[in-house]
Amino acid sequence: VQLQASGGGSVQAGGSLRLSCRASGRTFSGPMGWFRQAPGKEREFVATISGNGQITDYADSVKGRFTISRDNDKNTAYLQLNSLKSEDTAVYYCAATYLFSRDYSDPNLYNWWGQGTLVTVSS
User: Fold this and answer.
1) What are the residues facing 2 on neighbouring strands?
2) CA distance 16 to 12
3) Exposed e or buried b for every residue in 24-52, given b needs 16+ CB within 10 A?
4) Which residue from 94, 95, 90, 67 is spatially nearest to 80, judged by alpha carbons?
5) Quick check: 20 and 84 in contact, CB under 8 A?
6) Which residues lie below 8 Å from residue 64, measured CB to CB, with a gap of 6+?
7) Which of 25-29, 52-56, 86-90, 93-97 has the lowest mean pLDDT?
8) DSSP state letters, 17-78
9) Residues 57-93: pLDDT tens digits?
């Protein structure tokens, strides 16, 4: 499975972006997640979605502002970023896994990673 992330850019605080993560190579129906890494910081969990799209989970820092979704017909996951803050500035990575877990916030669970897309929020 190859993952291609896109949709990053530069926005002002309060703005919105939509990130996309397209899986290629084969039809993918396992859990997917988004993580981010700010300069000088460790990679952190942002959101995850189950294979059928019915179960989602978010980091506390983005709850109510970000929404994860997926379209399995298009083999694509999305992350809608609203009410962006300067502290959301980071490289955002999508990831996918076939492993079962009760907690998909652990990056070590993921088998495949996209290349990252940069989100810059100016205040």
Assistant:
1) 24
2) 9
3) eeeebbbbbbbbbeeeeeebebbbbbebe
4) 67
5) no
6) none
7) 25-29
8) EEEEEEEESS---S-EEEEEE-TTS--EEEEEE-TTS--EEE-TTTTTTEEEEEETTTTEEE
9) 999 999 999 999 999 999 999 999 999 999 999 999 9
Q: What is the pLDDT of residue 102?
A: 86
CA atoms within 13 A on the CB side of 59: 16
Task: Say if CB 53 and CB 67 are below 8 A apart.
Answer: no
**Do the beta carbons of residue 85 and residue 36 sit within 8 Å?**
no
Asked if the model's pLDDT at residue 26 lies above 90, the reply is no
CA pair distance 64, 42, nearest whole angstrom: 23
Length of the chain: 123
From residue 113, alpha-carbon distances to 11, 82, 84, 87, 93 in Å are 25, 24, 24, 23, 7
Amino acid at 109: L
Q: How far apart are CA 53 and CA 48, in angstroms?
A: 9
- Phi/psi at 5 (nearest 5 deg)? -95, 145
Q: What per-residue confidence (pLDDT) applies to 43?
A: 97
